[in-house]
Amino acid sequence: MIFRKAEFMISAVKPQQYPEGIRPELAVSGRSNVGKSSLINKLVNRKALAKVGKTPGKTQMINFFNINDEWYLVDLPGYGYAKVPQETRMQWGKMMQTYFRLRENLKGVIQLVDIRHQPTDEDRLMMEMLKVNNIPVLVVATKADKIARGQRPKYLKIIAESFKMSDWKTIIPFSSEDATGLQELNQAMDDIIFP
Ligand code: GDP
């Protein structure tokens, strides 16, 4: 897939603020600092479409981007920031549930985890929400450049086990630094959006 056009549309909290669901949509999810903004910018080949290194946990909004006037890319709010109060956490959970339940044009979610770390309770909660809502998931292990190629399977197996996935090889190792996995991810996204 070629990104000819990528433009910010709207930040939404409530369903009334979502853009009309007339095009297929793919969302990206992960903890704060997992490398979500860097991955989005790398994918669409823009320096700052999504803001890198923003204050973690601050922006609790669903950001919609128009891609090629053909589909929507959605940047879901990062979670798991330690200092976030319980009430904000609850709001985040409700906002995600509502989005997953109502968004009929949502074709799939790219779930990001840092290749070096075991998924957290919130990562597993997110995977559970996707499962109960029957939303296809593509797991991507970010910051792959931090782990030598030969060592990666060991880390991917830990992630797969934590998510109860049957095949760790379906996890795409990715790096925004050296473009590891970029083509593979691009192809996998294409397959989800235009089956
Ligand atoms: P977000 O909070 O999930 O949007 O994460 P960011 O994209 O802002 O990245 C968080 C931090 O991780 C920044 O300091 C990035 O430079 C760094 N980072 C992001 N992606 C990679 C990567 O692929 N490799 C390495 N080594 N660092 C990365």
In words, what does this structure look like?
- The chain is an alpha/beta fold and 195 residues long.
- It has a single domain (6-193), classed as Rossmann fold (3-Layer(aba) Sandwich).
- It has helices spanning 36-44, 86-102, 121-132, 152-162, 182-193; strands at residues 6-12, 25-29, 62-67, 71-75, 106-114, 137-142, 172-173.
- The protein has a seven-stranded mixed β-sheet, with helices on both faces.
- A hairpin with a 3-residue loop joins strand 3 and strand 4 (71-75).
- It is globular.
- The two termini are 13 Å apart.
- The mean pLDDT is 93.
- Residues 30, 32-38, 52-53, 56, 78, 142-143, 145-146, 175-177 line the site of guanosine-5'-diphosphate.
Q: Could you say which small molecules are bound to this protein?
A: guanosine-5'-diphosphate
Give the helices and strands as they follow along the chain: EEHEEHEHEHEH
Number of helices: 5
Q: Kindly report the name of the CATH homologous superfamily.
A: P-loop containing nucleotide triphosphate hydrolases
* Count of all domains: 1
CATH-defined fold name? Rossmann fold
What is the CA–CA distance across the termini?
A: 13 Å
CATH class: Alpha Beta
**CATH architecture assignment:** 3-Layer(aba) Sandwich
Helix content class = 25-40%
Estimated structural class: alpha/beta
Widest β-sheet, arrangement of strands: 1-3-4-2-5-6-7
Overall form: globular
Beta-strand residue percentage: 15-25%
The radius of gyration computed from the alpha-carbon positions, rounded to a whole number of angstroms, is 16 Å
Low-confidence stretches: none
Number of strands: 7
Largest sheet: 7 strands, mixed
Summarize model confidence as the mean pLDDT.
93
